[in-house]
Amino acid sequence: MFIPIDFAWLEATMLAAVRITAFIVIAPPFSYGAIPMRIKAMLAIGLSLAMGGAVAPGYENLATGAFFGALTVQVLTGALLGFLVMVCFSALQAAGNLIDVFGGFQLAQAFDPFSLVNGAQFTRLFHLSALALLFSSGGYQIILAGLARSFDAVPVDGVFEVSGPAQLLVDGVSQMVLAAVQIAGPLVLVLFLADVGLGLITRVAPALNAFAMGFPVKILLTLLLAGVVFIALPGLVDALTSEALRMIRGVH
User: Fold this and answer.
1) Which terminus of the chain has fewer CB atoms gathered within 10 Å of its CB, N or C?
2) Is residue 111 part of a domain?
3) Strand, coil or helix: 159
């Protein structure tokens, strides 16, 4: 019994699977630790088989050394794309961390082994809410579409220019910090003014012990104003998804 095997298609699909696996392990929402590794592996295999017909045309079998070199390049490409997506969505986590620090919740910080996030309530709340919105709104499909388009920019047997991704990383980190400040900035300003007001009250009437009274006041302000930020979270996730797609397309 003779079973014909297209080794060019098989090699191209294997290289695509390596890039997709590296991407899924790092990029949200697929990187969440509560998702079983076998599910991630099945997703990577399914996506690579779906991409096999697109990456195989024009591919020629490589020598052993060149094939292992291409494997290394695919790991780096997938990891880079996943890291760019992770940087975009780290803005919400950083905004939650700012709210925890200025709202007085930082004392209750804990490490989440599933999301690998070390933070207090709002840090983990914003992180988990962003992951839930990505799945419920279909944003993960946009991210996967960007990953699929990356094979047109960087073929499985090709390489990418180092200068382009390096500039994207610098821009991504700066945009992440700016987005975090824009998201949490109004709330942080209100909490700072509350601290200033409590300080003035303490100067005028030291017997009132305003700082002891300030903890419940700041917690109440944080809960009220953070609710406004939480209502705007779907729009923020949509904007961050578009930004992640733009950064993926920028790798070539």
Assistant:
1) N
2) no
3) coil
